[in-house]
């Protein structure tokens, strides 16, 4: 992918990016990039990070490798975004909603009931030309390059009180959402009480009853142990938000051209693996949750939920030309890749 823009070439020629150990512990000739992921070691994104390290070491004759840090050990997403921006962390897997705080146009990926299938979502995410402006939009202001976006499941509602079937069931429930305007607004329109907080804080908030519930994909529900506390998982399937692989633009520019290209060439394969491996991970997570006594219900009036947020989707999607273009592409991808 042609991700290095005129702006970053400008930086290079000024020599601003030519110092430092490349976001990792530079030992001898080897640079170890840090990759941060908020998920556990079993998560496909953690595993894809390990794979990226192996492959990168091969293709750069050992000049570069990757150390993966899971479980938010390097900090919350908001904190790590800052580290990627200042170049002390080379890579992170970042939830789409968090990227919205850097450029609100990322909202096109974060709106409810917009993607009909995983295939449609991936068709849009993998369209390099379509995403070029968005994916390079943070380079100048934040020194962050978006390398790719991957499938990260469908998000549904879960809580400790009752199954959700209609919007009335959600009324008054205090639900954690991701920290972005679109997510807060979505939950308000669906009738719940939104409580934005970072991923790692949700478990104890559920446990202490500060929250009645949250909304997430099955793997996060299970791996973060939310299923120990919230026993009702209701298939609202209201969101399909991707995760993005972010890289420090400074660190990327700091590599010699051949190594940088070798790294960029690995990204499609690594990203495809993260997306594909998510599917069986969902099944395992459902089994684990069921063993803990979780009640999954699929008898949800999704049309009713969809109607409530339709005005909001239209408003966000029509805010500027980039968004209307992306929305057109999304609708076309849905037509070509309908729900199973
Ligand atoms: C999912 C998603 C993460 C996101 C998390 C959250 O796990 O993959 O990127 O951070 O949800 O709800 O915060």
Automatic annotation (TrEMBL):
The keyword Signal applies. InterPro entries: DctP_fam, TRAP_DctP, TRAP_DctP_sf. The keyword Signal applies. Pfam families: DctP. CDD domains: PBP2_TRAP_SBP_like_3. This is Tripartite ATP-independent transporter DctP family solute receptor. It comes from Brooklawnia cerclae. Keywords: Receptor, Signal. PANTHER family: DICARBOXYLATE-BINDING PERIPLASMIC PROTEIN (PTHR33376:SF2), PTHR33376.
